[in-house]
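Exercise 7. Predict the structure of YceI family protein from Kaistella yananensis.
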Amino acid sequence: MKNTIAILLLIISPVMFFAQQNGVEINGWTNVNTFKCTNINFKNSPTIYSFTGNQLPNLQLQVNDFDCKNRMMTADFRKTLHSDKYPVLTIKFLNFTKTGANRFSANVEVKMMTVTRKYNIEFSEYKNSLVGNKRLKFSDFNIVPPKKMGGMVYVKDELDLLFSLAIKD
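Solution. The predicted structure, encoded as tokens:
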């Protein structure tokens, strides 16, 4: 029962959070808490995306534009992603296919620092936005999750990448 509720929340929460707007959010967990880092400039972007033809989106996100609503957590997030050396996180759509009513599938290339990984991501259309999420791992990108207080507080390897793209009617 708990697993069913958790799965429903993973599906529903991005849809409700990102309705009718652009947004990229990275959610993660420590052994004592959770964190959510949102790309503020992308969220405020008025860009409307098109998924027809050969012009699929290629998102260039500044790592320093992510805000975790906690100064220390934001600084740790940026340090972990080496924002001084690698200021851009890229999400590039390689292909995009309709799979059902208001359902889509995309092959997406995510680049963090020097590592690029491809993922299949399912999307739903909701109030003029395409909403999707994918569970990634720090280790997918050769990143060691940070530890604090001599390892007493540590970040878990898994991250949820949630995003919403405003689309044309």
